[in-house]
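Hi R.,

Here's the chain you asked about this morning:
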Amino acid sequence: MLVDLTIKEFLEKTASKTPVPGGGSGAALSAAVAAGLVEMVANLTIGKKGFEEVEIEMRKVAKEAVELKEELAGNIDKDAEAFNQVMVAFRLPQNTEEEKISRSEAIQNSLKQAALVPLGVAQHAFKVIELAGIAVEKGNKNAVTDGAVGAMMARTAVLGALLNVKINLSSIKDSDFVSEVSMQIQPLQEGIKTREEEILSRVEI
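And here is the predicted structure, written out as tokens:
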């Protein structure tokens, strides 16, 4: 599994001629690291003198960050597997009319899954940036830049994941599916940059 590789192994595999891990897995990894940074800021705030009033909130932030980190780490492999299934579908035989129909259906179904996985990554990464906002605003000021980096990585993850959604949507023939997913893309894409700017504006160093 990709998630079990060392950092060096993952980087080497990413740089190789194989198509996975690609941008989708990279977006999931970026979001998972962002969640880890948010969790760190929260943990560096909990129990610290002067932050008693936000301790309950920081415990909640840490808990949610842990859950998102684990979910996003799992998506590193889910994205790669979704791409692999698309490739499997394209390799199906198409010698008869029946085989052609079956192959086309398999391709379309696999493309839908390949769009839904990064959509989930984008949605989870947006939750991460919201947590990063809390960590930057209310967390330990000695770790404010860590929270800011988390916000920037979450922003990259959202936009990167959405690129992968879009490229798969471009080959999907189900107009209702495309329309439904596109409606979910829009608020994420429009809101993420503004949210990042708001968070970074609070960073004073």
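One quick note: The mean pLDDT is 97.

Cheers,
M.
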